[in-house]
Give the backbone structure.
Amino acid sequence: MTRTELENQTPAATRLRISWGLAAAGSLLLVVGPLLGVVDGAEPAFTSWPLLALLAVLPPAVAGVLLFRGRPFVAAGLVAATGVFAVGRLLSDLQVAFAPMAVARPELFRPSTLIAVTPSAGVWLLVFGHVLVIAGGALAAGRAGLPADESEPPTLVALPVLIAAVAAIGLLGKPFLSTDPFQLDRGPWDLPVLGLTGGLLIAVAAPLATALAASSPDPDTRQGGVLGVTLAVLALVLPPLVTGTVADGLTISSGPLVALLAALVLPAVPLVGRTIRLARGRRDETRDPALPSLRRLHLATGVLAVLAALAMTVGALLPQLVLSTGDAAPGLSSANLLWVAGPVFGVLGLLMLVPSAGPVVRPALCGTYAAMQLAAASATDPVLDASRLGIAQPGAGFWLMVAELPLGLLALVCAALAGAVERENEDIGEREQVPVTELGAVLLAGFLAVGAFVLPTVRGDRYTGATVVPSDDPAMSWSLLVSLVVLVVTLVVALRSRPARGAAELVGVAVLVGVRALELPLTGDRVEGAVVAAGTWLALASCVALLIGAALLGARATR
């Protein structure tokens, strides 16, 4: 009996519909509560109820579409995951009811005086809404007693849980930063017992719901659970991020931003597991639906890569900062590196749309994507510093630059799937021995690149550029360390790949090292007395060695 027949004929299917109905009714209360107002004596920091309404109805709306289109297990996993988060959200909203001045919820209300506000009927609608969402999640938690007619052992469990744990760390941070004496920027650790407990339960819900979903033998339950976690985290972090962007005296903090990025990455994990199965040659036709053709995967990769490149390039054009006074913010020279990495990634994306060029340029995407992140890290730090000081807020250019990360990551996932399909359909044959000249060029490039990332590229008056050794700029140091790891791994893979693929991989990491080499000429004017340091020369030498290695590999591929 198929799942659709079970869905239509068993009492358990009715219970699934009831669980969805409870979650949908709860979401409607979550819409009405902010619309009526949760307190008397204060207004929201901005017109937030349309955003809150959208975030409230999105999970049951998606679950309803899945349920009535014959995907009940995916819908059940989604409803169950959102129910796990609703427990902590219930306690957090109860804190508003009992001590509203102790919490930081400017999307619901923003105090403008020291006179205490009083809770109103809207907050109790929120509380009852969470109760209904919890009830719906509990009823759907075991797929309402409906057994799966197929099972598939989970391929990846630790990776999605690790990503969800990163989201949990972000949820435990301050929701925003405030220079307003009447609006506190309290995180969960600064709240009374009720709010603290709610905040901790919300943070724990991310890895807990993800672990329960990822460890399920039913692929539909895994898909629905991960989707539910993503939607729940978005509902938690988007209001403070929007508040920090549009409200005077409030700026974004790193916690919600980290949680947002983790939530956007999480849905791609099943594709990673599927890629691993393909790479190992263990795809089961009865479990895995038909894969898109290689051509379609290349098209998806190209479109996503072009969108990511456009986001970064337009982000370099638009203001990265908006001053709190409303005046125009000065341009940031650190954003100049975006002009290098973004267009190169976009050109590769356009080439992916060409049937004959797609397989050739695809291996270069990984190194170029790492180059984009290194450039973005250089531009992010001054924006966050200005936000922490309260003198400016992130502008449209910054948010576009942030948007390229998930778009580019999805492009890499599609490219990895395309590579796995290609290996499955082609006879790769016996690996050729790498000639000494090619091996020497790649090893020399690697040694030079290590020096380029370990040593600074810029020195100035009382200033030394960031390196992999943590200093005054730990975020940039971590970016350099990750870039170096990506570079070393790519060099090893290039030596083990077919010559044409290896040449493309070397070109990709040459772009990464090139971004490092261009730090002084493109961003040196921000440093007083800037002079070239050893890292710049080593990066340039590494680029030359990488391009020579790529040329040698390419020449061997044409023989």
Remarks:
- The longest strand covers residues 176-178.
- The first helix runs from residue 3 to 9.
